[in-house]
């Protein structure tokens, strides 16, 4: 059952209703960020009803203790989590001594919108007080021009009566995580200064930890600029973890005032603690000098450039149009390649679930999209992120007594920081996704410089891990991989997960292929012997893959077909989603699949399988899949489109495009599913438009969904910008920038140097 809070609009997420019963969902859907920091859609004036107040800062985290009663050798020492950071939007507000709180204060004409053109959040309403009505509006954005800056503007207009307004503009670090133990605090104060005539600041640091993880410090600065007909009274006060400037002024009937709150944040990731106050003040001078209008104009320009490259235009279906743009704006608010030390957490800056860390989602789902819609350096940064953490991957493997590099399932610094054994040390398939991302970047961009240098180190490390993790079955005469969890996390500790085995051998194949072209210096450093290469080739030649000849399918793992195999449609509707109704034991024993598993491997290596193999596996596995991972629908949509199952492809596109907007899985209240949001773009471009890139060949096989009039998108491919437009008459390709190129349209080679029609 879905739930839709916002009206349909191609460029706005908007509503005239305050979702008092679904405030957390509304807060998630109106979260904003700029890659450096972000926050949920909380109210500046506060809200006493149910709410999840959250502000998060890129790369700032805490190593929480992870020990459990029955400790296993190899467990990580800590569980990394992105911690709720100092709150800088708080502006408690009273009018005529009445606290403004939409959970209690009478109001009308409520309106809330997230403008996807420029990532600006707007809210307005009229409060009804005795003999007085005041219209209030709030606008805020995280600056993309000055990444350390946020801007909040409050406008108050007295419609009736007289209003004495008081605002307590705050920097407040008295915050905690919802998932913390017993209201545990993660912040300690270092310095504070409240100033009623200039800039106030608050400096805090994460509490000590017993691990080799640095403490993070932050300095937040604020300046409040008031434009009001009557002079304001300004005072300042402070207390532990809080600085506050109080502003009080009077508005007569018909008068209006504007309060602009400028905030800057600098962290120890960039500035030493003892230099942060000075750095914050310097930034503040820059920001205030620019002013609200100039910062907003710069914001508009940056976002227009992003949309010029990435927008997908859909005619005839505003529901689909809103969905794809919402996903794009949220992705770009989370990450746009500005910092190679950062990555994309499953919840981004929108919530605390999944610890805010990096998962395999980035390589599997973000890289394929970002290659086409951002400058190449953005994906290059994501690859450098993994390379820079290679030593941590070697550490993770050593913890298990294995050779090579095991990249973490969950991390901030390259060291595994997740404490669930079945995920952390059995879901080793993530190594394959990281290797595959290197291949995707290399083949799509044509740039071999990364793989020939840094990438080959990553590949060899992963190859050595696989070569040690497999074992040879003398009985079968085959190599096997036991004790794993595949992408389908509704099965744990299985033997010979087809996807894991397949990606392991693919990685060995690709590494052997790329070794001859690696830099001489890297070859000397890596010392891959002929004997080692021969061993890798033997694993490739004799790997075991579970298959069923009668069904004509690749079997998910050795015992999957021994289950009570039945379609997900047999699950009573009132028991869906099963992860919110069934015990974990019941889920593990069931045949139901959380997300693409065998089909994930077919998607990754899509050119290596016949149409018959794809169809038989899709027809078998998709009906068993409950799609309770946000990562699932897009893969199925792409394969359904290739197989000509257009209705199924469109159905699954709708699920991935509006997973959060319509709350498909009833789990968006604690944050958006950021890393799955690329799935809507993939479903359109790789699915509906049939885009493939393989062996220096770019091809398209588009179809038009039944209820769409047309759709169009652009891709950035090897220094070219190509626009693809599909309507009932066919497909039009335009080379907007770059040298002529031969592409394949419906299997026909076409020289693309001007507009081409089919």
UniProtKB/TrEMBL annotation:
BP GO annotations: carbohydrate metabolic process
Q: Which Pfam families does this entry report, sorted A to Z?
A: Glyco_hydro_65C, Glyco_hydro_65m, Glyco_hydro_65N
Q: Where is the Glycoside hydrolase family 65 N-terminal domain?
A: 15-269
Glycoside hydrolase family 65 central catalytic domain boundaries = 325-681
Which GO terms of the molecular function aspect are on file?
Answer: carbohydrate binding; glycosyltransferase activity; hydrolase activity, hydrolyzing O-glycosyl compounds
- What UniProt keywords are attached to this protein's entry? Hydrolase
Looking up InterPro entries in the UniProt record yields: 6-hairpin_glycosidase_sf (IPR008928), 6hp_glycosidase-like_sf (IPR012341), Gal_mutarotase_sf_dom (IPR011013), GH65_N (IPR037018), Glyco_hydro_65_C (IPR005194), Glyco_hydro_65_M (IPR005195), Glyco_hydro_65_N (IPR005196), Malt_Pase/Glycosyl_Hdrlase (IPR017045)
Residues of the Glycoside hydrolase family 65 C-terminal domain: 691-751
Residues annotated as the enzyme's active site: 489
Per UniProt, where does substrate bind? 360-361, 594-595
Q: What is this protein called?
A: Glycoside hydrolase family 65 protein
Species of origin reads Schleiferilactobacillus harbinensis
Q: What is the lineage of its organism?
A: Bacteria, Bacillati, Bacillota, Bacilli, Lactobacillales
């Amino acid at each position: 059952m879905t739930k839709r809070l916002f009206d349909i609009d191609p460029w706005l997420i908007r509503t005239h209703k305050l979702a008092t019963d679904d405030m957390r969902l509304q807060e998630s859907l109106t979260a904003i960020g700029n890659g450096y920091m972000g926050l949920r859609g909380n109210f500046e004036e506060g809200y006493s009803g149910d709410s999840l107040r959250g502000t998060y800062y890129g790369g700032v985290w805490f190593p929480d203790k992870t020990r459990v009663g029955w400790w296993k050798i190899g467990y990580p020492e800590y569980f990394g989590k992105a911690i709720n950071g100092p709150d800088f939007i708080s502006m408690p507000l009273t009018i005529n001594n009445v606290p403004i709180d939409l959970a209690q204060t009478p109001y009308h004409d409520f309106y809330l919108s997230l403008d996807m053109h420029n990532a600006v959040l707007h809210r307005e309403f009229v409060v009804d007080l005795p003999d007085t009505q005041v219209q209030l509006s709030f606008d805020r954005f995280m600056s993309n021009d000055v990444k350390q800056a946020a801007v909040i503007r409050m406008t108050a207009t007295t419609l009736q009566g007289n209003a004495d307004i008081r605002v307590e503009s705050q920097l407040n670090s008295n915050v905690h995580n919802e998932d913390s133990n017993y209201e545990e605090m993660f912040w300690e104060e270092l310095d504070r200064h409240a100033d009623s005539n200039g800039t106030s600041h608050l400096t805090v640091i994460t509490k000590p930890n017993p691990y080799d993880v640095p403490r993070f410090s932050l300095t937040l600065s604020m300046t409040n600029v008031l434009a009001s007909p009557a002079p304001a009274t300004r005072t300042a006060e402070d207390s532990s973890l809080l600085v506050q400037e109080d502003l009080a002024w009077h508005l007569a009937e018909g008068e209006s005032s504007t309060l602009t709150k400028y905030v800057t944040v600098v962290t120890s990731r960039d500035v030493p603690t003892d230099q942060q106050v000075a750095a914050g003040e310097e930034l503040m001078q820059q920001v205030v000098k620019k002013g609200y209008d100039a910062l907003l104009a710069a914001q508009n320009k940056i976002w227009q450039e992003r949309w010029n490259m990435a927008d997908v235009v859909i005619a005839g279906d505003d529901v689909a149009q809103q969905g794809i743009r919402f996903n794009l704006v949220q992705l770009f608010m989370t990450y746009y390649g500005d910092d190679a030390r950062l990555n994309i957490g499953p919840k981004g800056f929108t919530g605390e679930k999944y610890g805010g860390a990096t998962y395999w989602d980035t390589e599997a789902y973000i890289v394929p999209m970002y290659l086409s819609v951002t400058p190449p350096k953005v994906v290059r940064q994501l690859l450098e992120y993994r390379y820079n953490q290679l030593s941590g991957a070697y550490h993770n493997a050593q913890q298990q007594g294995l050779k090579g590099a095991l990249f973490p399932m969950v991390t901030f610094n390259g060291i595994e920081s997740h404490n669930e054994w079945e995920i952390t040390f059995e879901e080793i398939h993530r190594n394959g996704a990281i290797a595959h991302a290197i291949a995707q970047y290399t083949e799509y961009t044509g740039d071999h410089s990364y793989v020939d240098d840094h990438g080959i180190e990553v590949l060899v490390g992963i190859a050595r891990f696989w070569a040690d993790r497999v074992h040879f079955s003398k009985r079968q005469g085959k190599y096997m991989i036991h004790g794993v969890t595949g992408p389908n996390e509704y099965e744990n500790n299985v033997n010979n997960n087809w996807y894991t085995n397949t990606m392991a051998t693919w990685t060995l194949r690709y590494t052997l292929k790329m070794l001859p072209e690696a830099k001489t210096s890297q070859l000397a450093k890596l010392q891959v012997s002929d004997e080692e290469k021969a061993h890798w080739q033997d694993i490739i030649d004799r790997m075991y893959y579970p298959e069923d000849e009668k069904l004509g399918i690749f079997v998910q793992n050795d015992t999957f077909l021994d289950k009570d195999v039945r379609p997900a449609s047999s699950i009573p509707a009132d028991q869906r989603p099963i992860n919110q109704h069934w015990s974990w034991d019941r889920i593990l024993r069931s045949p139901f699949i959380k997300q693409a598993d065998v089909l994930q491997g077919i998607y990754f290596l899509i050119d290596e399988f016949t149409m018959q193999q794809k169809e038989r596996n899709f027809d078998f596995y998709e009906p068993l899949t409950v799609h309770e991972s946000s990562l699932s629908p897009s893969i199925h949509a792409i394969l359904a489109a290739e197989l000509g199952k257009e209705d199924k492809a469109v159905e699954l596109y709708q699920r991935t495009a509006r997973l959060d907007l319509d709350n498909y899985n009833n789990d968006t209240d604690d944050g958006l599913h950021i890393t799955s949001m690329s799935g809507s773009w993939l479903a359109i471009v790789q699915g509906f438009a049939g885009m493939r890139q393989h062996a220096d060949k770019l091809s398209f096989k588009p179809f038009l969904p039944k209820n769409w009039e047309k759709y169009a998108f652009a891709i950035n491919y090897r220094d070219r910008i190509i626009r693809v437009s599909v309507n009932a008459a066919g497909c039009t390709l335009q080379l907007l920038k770059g040298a002529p190129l031969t592409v394949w349209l419906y299997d026909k080679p076409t020289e693309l140097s001007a507009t081409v029609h089919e």
